Amino acid sequence: MGRTGIGAVARNAEGKLMKAWARAEQKTSEPQVEEAAAIQMGMQMAQEANWKAVEFQSDCKAVVDMINKENEQDTRVDTILEDIANMRCLFEKCTFSFVHRAGNSCAHSLAICGKAN
Hints:
By secondary structure, this protein is an alpha+beta fold.
């Protein structure tokens, strides 16, 4: 079993930090599965916060491409991707984009901290 850290940051349209969270789990999943699960969890949190327009950014291009259907589906993450697709209708606007890790350093730092604790 390996330790996996997940970090997420929520900002408003002006870039102001609204929420941040991290979580660690004992898992042996592949990184794409973990990234898709993190996005799914972020969608649940955004829906619970009653946010209407959201953009989910990830440094895992393969997962973003699968969500945006620009890449073939990976059977290891199919169920999570289906859940993400179904949850899109919970928001008035919902987009997914790829961001290099350097552009997402706050979330990456949270994931590292979560993994270490």
